[in-house]
Every structure is written in structure tokens, then in C-alpha cells.
## 1
Amino acid sequence: MFNEPLDIKIPDGKIIFHEGFFSLEESHRLMQSLIKTIDWTQDEVIVYGKRHKIPRLNAWYGDEGKVMKYSGLSLEPKTWTKELLEIKSKIEEASGTKFNSCLLNYYRDGKDGMGWHQDNEKELGINPIIASVTFGETRPFQLKHISNKELKKVDIPLSNGSLLTMAGETQHYWKHQIPKTTKTLESRINLTFRQIL
């Protein structure tokens, strides 16, 4: 049985956090399986005219035809695996939301991260619901309001087996990131389930 979900109060957005949504045993089993069975790649993005390898491994899975476009990339979905469907079913039941795609990020150590961004691609619709699952090392998930500089940065430690859901107008008003660190960290896999229109 997982902990009760926590409604994290932020203006102009909606965030719900379930710590321990997956048990430690489930989390360990699923993470080890994902490391082995997912077709991981290290994509390149173009920033100011120069190609850079993104600082993490990633993969895009989903229903046929649900293409994801961001940072100049166009990702064709790979076919759902047994483990991804298991995870998807559990979070759909808990959230009451159906998802048709999933972006996976594999942070091998503290040198891997993701900079400030919004999940506001047009394929996601106006107010997308995004469910984020973490397996492995705890990493800080940081949010900052785009226009209201008086609001403090929000820092949520995403722990092993946790589920964080972003909904409402969050993607319009908030950016988020997983910062890099020089600390010695174990690996972490994050799955963000989405509904591509």
C-alpha cells in the first residue's frame, strides 16, 4: 500500500506527489528490467547552431503514430514493453487518466541532468497531465515560476518508487529541471507518461 498523495500547493498550477507509490521491491525489479530491456539512445540537440549530446540516455515508447517533437528532435515511438504497460496501468488507475506515450530518461550519475524547460509542445494540448515515475537514486525536481520572480523555487526530492503528477496550468507558468551535481550518485530512471493528441 502506498502513502497518501500530497497536494503540493503552487499558484498557477497543480502538482500531486505520491511518495512510495511503488514498493521498494517493485522499484528495484522494474528498474533492473528497464535498464536491460529499453532501447536506450543518447540523442543530440542543436543549441545555437552547434550539436550537443544530451546529458542522459533516453527513449520514447508509445502507441503507434504518437510522435514526440522537441528541441529539433522527432521521436518515433517504440512498441510498449511488458514492464512499461505494467507501470502505465498502475498509474492510470491511480490518476484516472489514460496515457498513450512515455519518455524515459536514464540518469547514469550526477553528471547527467536536464535543464530548465516546460513540457508545452503542441502535441500535448492546452493543459497536459504528465505523470512522472522515479526509480533509483533520489534527485531534486526543481520548479520556478516563469513571470512571478517573488515566488521561491520549489524543490521536491523525487525518491525511489515515487509518482509526481503535473496538471492544470503548470506547463504554462512553471519551468522545471533535474540539476546536475558533482556529488557521487547512483543511477536513476525517470518515466514521464503523456497523452499525445
## 2
Amino acid sequence: MLPSSTVENYLKAIYSAQRAIEVEALVPMGQLAAALNVVPGTATTMVKTLAESGLVRYEPYAGVRLTPAGDRLAALVLRRHRLVELFLVQVMGMSWTEVHDEAELLEHAVSDRLIERMDEMLGRPAVDPHGDPIPNAEGGVHERVYHSLLECPVGRPLRVARVADQDVDFLRFLEQSRLMPGQPVAVVARDPAADSVEVQGPGQQRITLGARAASKVLVDVQADS
């Protein structure tokens, strides 16, 4: 079966869901259907087709998980998506807040040859504009483990490394607050009662984030100067 855009979207959704659950655990069908905005019956029918093609392992009433072949194909879809995003930002001058939807369309259309040329032109980047890792041409990906602003050390120098949300309004808020990947930041205080985190960004500015927002900003702990 040649991978259609629908097949690629299913594989990508399963791939992303697997990263948020325990190793070897199955992705529930209801969760997959919700992620793809389809009814569970539609998701089940498609997953059965993917299972027949050897791309997923499906267990009725339990869930689904990618096979090695499905995992590699899903990683290559993400490779195209993330390289396109970076190309649109760095070469085309688009905002990081608007490239996700464009990349969703282009990831199914660009050829492997064009993607390889983009990768070379961009200098073989490791991450996209949001800090997400870019898989290599073989589908391998180096996933670094980061702390969120909810759990990182207080008072230590940090660097924003990754943003775990592609919502346009959220990205605009982070851009206005100068909390984009690469920017220095430090957690000043946490208030469990108010469910908030106070951070100090570039230029010594202080910003208060709700717990939900803070959980989506992933940081790398820097060495003390």
C-alpha cells in the first residue's frame, strides 16, 4: 500500500501519542479518533487496514501501536513536516506561529529529493522552530528529555528548548513574552495555591504563567555561571 496523506496522518498521530505513554503500551482507539477528529468506527476501520499492511499492531478493545516499519514511515513524515516549517521560517521569512498549518499541507506533497535539498540548505538542523527534533533521513530521531517550567529547578539559569503546543495564540503569547526556543529564562517562584509560575525572561522582565501554560514550555538547565 502506497502511503496516502490519510495513512501518513494516522501514522503520525499514533507516533505522537506513543511518545506520551509508557513504552510498549497501546494507544487507545478513542484517543486516536479524537486526535484525528473522526468517529471511533472510522479510526478502527483505517487501523485494521494499516495492520494488514504491516504498519501497526492492532488489538481489538485494547488499542494500536506502530510496528518498526510504521514507526520509520511516521518519523519520515515528521521529518518532512519539521524541515518544511524551518524552511518557511528561515528562508521564506514566515512567523513560527503560522507555519504549522502550511507544513501540514506540504508534508504530503514534497518529494524526498526536495526534502534532502532543504536539509542540506538549512545546515542539517537538529530541531524545528518550536524545538521539536527533526528525524534523520533513515527515520532515526534523538529525543532529548527536558524539564517543563513546572518541574525545573527554581533560581537556576535555564534555556527555553521546546514548546509542546502549536496553538497559534499560545505561540504568539510566547513570542510577545520572549519565551521562544533559545531564550534564557529562570523560574523565580511557584505558587501552588494560585496554580502559577513566575519566570524571569530576557531583559529581566518577569512574567506569570498559569500551570497549564508552564507545563508546555520545556527548558534545558544551564550550568551556573
## 3
Amino acid sequence: MNGENQSPEKKPKGSWSLLYILSGGILKEDFVRRHAEMIGLVVLLSLLYIGNRHACLMKLWEIDRLQQQLKDVKYESVALSGQLTGSNRQSQIEELVKAQGLDLETAKTPPYMLYK
């Protein structure tokens, strides 16, 4: 009688093998059947968590890349500004005019306003 009451599908606890799990036999277990919705919800939330974390990491990497690019552009701007300031001095301009061979000289009289 004891042999007739037990179904051949049921396995005793602790005898789950890798082949049993991979072949889908675990899906026949009562625990899995009773909690299928909760297991599905946990899997779905886990996938959402992983996807959200990946998206956040990608955005953080993009922010770091843009901040580094901003630093580089600021340094380049400061360097170019320094060069421009140096080349706008009157003595530098006079040297460039002489080097180009232009027939220009500095004004001897200060500028004055025509209209007040």
C-alpha cells in the first residue's frame, strides 16, 4: 500500500541532481508550482535591477568622459588666451609689421574725438 500511494514523479528531498534540474523535473515540484508567481516576480525584479544598474553605470562613465573632455577644453582655452594676449601687445604687433615688410608706423599724436 505504501508503494501505491507514492507517485513515481515525486523524488525524495535532497536528491535533486543537475540533470533533474536542467531537464525540467524541478518544475513539477509542489513548491515551484505553488510559488511560481512569486518566483516570476523575483526574476523580473532582478532583471530590472540589473538593467537599471547597467544604465546608471553607463551614464556615470559618460559623465566622467565629458568632465575630462571639459577639463581638456578649458586648459586649451587658457593656453590659447595666453598666446592671444601675448601676441596683442603693441611691441609684438610692431615686430610683426616689420617682419611682414609693411610700410606702417606708430602714430605720433594721440587720437582725438571728432564729435562729442
